[in-house]
Each structure stands twice: as structure tokens, then as C-alpha cells.
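User: Run a structure prediction on this.
Assistant: Running it now.
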Amino acid sequence: MDYYSCIQKSLDFIEDNLIKDIALKEVAEAGGFSLYHFQRIFKALTGDSLREYIRKRRLTEASFELLYTNTRVIEIAMKYHFGSQESFTRAFKKVYNKTPGKYRKENKNITYYHRNIINVDNMKHITQNIEVVYHSIIEKEIMVVGVEYTEQYNIITFNKMLKDFISRKDLIKNVVDPNMITGICYSDVSDFYPEKQVNYMFCTEVRDFKDIPKGMIGKLLPRRDYLVFIHKASREKMDDTFNYIYGSFLPKSGYELLEGDDLIIFDYKNDNESRLYIPIKT
């Protein structure tokens, strides 16, 4: 699969439909993806969630109309699907630090949206802290027991969830390795933004599902083919590794993704190494 050309098809679809009601699923399908994986690949390649990218592009086009046409602000707001003049003004002011009316009056063009530039620190992280194990197969179903969480996504809440699970994990019986923890994210992980609620599970492998503690659940991880990556840095830099995997490695690899949960497996006493499992088709 040529990821870059597929993403370009989706970008073209967005540009052709900025003044229409855009369903995220339609954008993904324009590039030949499922929404689940498209959002992660899209964010890794553009630096924005799909939802945020569309909002930025609409604001930028709206700013041009403010400067170069006499169209009323309310008409521009409705044209670019902000719902009302008030919501458009709030969104515009948050980005441009001035109201649409003041922006039009000052008559000075400010191009808001542009792509991020890869920085040196990120390149060092890619070359020094990521090891590609390539194709691995989990030969049998794995039983895990743990806690499901629904939280806003950021590293603070990630650590909060992990700390809570660590404080409760000794209640779990028949554990295979008490130091090893698995993280599973059920949400559309690349559509993260500060207020986004994500569904996450921290768990550990067990020999059976007997005596599951109150407030926890058992889950069966299926036999599956994965690409495996070793992340040799703190978990706070995990997003950088995922961005490399989905934005650089996968587009060039020839592998096709299988819709399913990514896994993060790590020794909770060692913050400097984790294994990332990405499900693939065979």
C-alpha cells in the first residue's frame, strides 16, 4: 500500500469538501483506509488529528474570505460549518487572538495552518531509541486481567491510570509474571486532543480467569501477527515512537495493518524499555 498517495487522496477529499459536512469515515475511505488506522497514520504524517486538521483548514479559508471578500461574518461562519457566528468567533479568536471583525479591519494576512518540521530531537529518538524486531506471532490466546479506564488523554492521566493499576495489581491471582504490565487502548488513538476521552486498559497475563478481583475484568487476547518495536526511552516519549511507526516506518514497509488493538508490554519497574505490538495482516 502506498500510504503517502492514499493520504494525499484523503487530503484532496478534504479540500474538495471544506464547505460541506465532512464525515471522518468518508475521509478515511477516500484514501482506502478504515477510520481506526487512518486517524493514527494521518496524525503521524501531518502532526494533527483529522478533526483538528479540518478545523484549521476551515479557519484558514475563512480568514481569506474575511480579507478578500465583503461576505458577512455570519455567512462565512455558516459556510465553514461553525454552527453560529458566536462559535466561529470563539474558534477564530482562540487561534488568531482577535475577533473576525478586528482581523478584517486590520487587513493583514496571517497564514495560520502549516505543516510541522521534523526536529533534531525527534530524529535522535528515532535513530537511538527505537529497535525494530519486525514480524512476530503470538501463537496462542493470552488471558489477561486488569482495569478499564476512561480518561482524557495526556501523559499525566496515562501515569495516573498506571499508578492506580500498580496499586491494585497484587489483588490479581495466578499471575504469570508480576512485573510485566500490558497497556491496551480501545479508542481511535490518533484522534487525541486535550479533552478527548479515551478507553484504556492496564492488565497483566494470568493462567486462568478464576477469582477476578472486584472492579476488574478478564480479557482474551487473540492469536495474531504483529510488528514488534522496542521503545528504549521513558514512556513519556511513547507518542514519538508511535508517530515514527505510523508516519515513517509503515508507509515504507509494505505491511498492511489489521484493525485491532495495539499493545504496549513493559516491566513497570523499568521506565526505559517497552515493547510495542502493532497488528498486521498476513
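Residues 190-194 have pLDDT under 50 and may be disordered.
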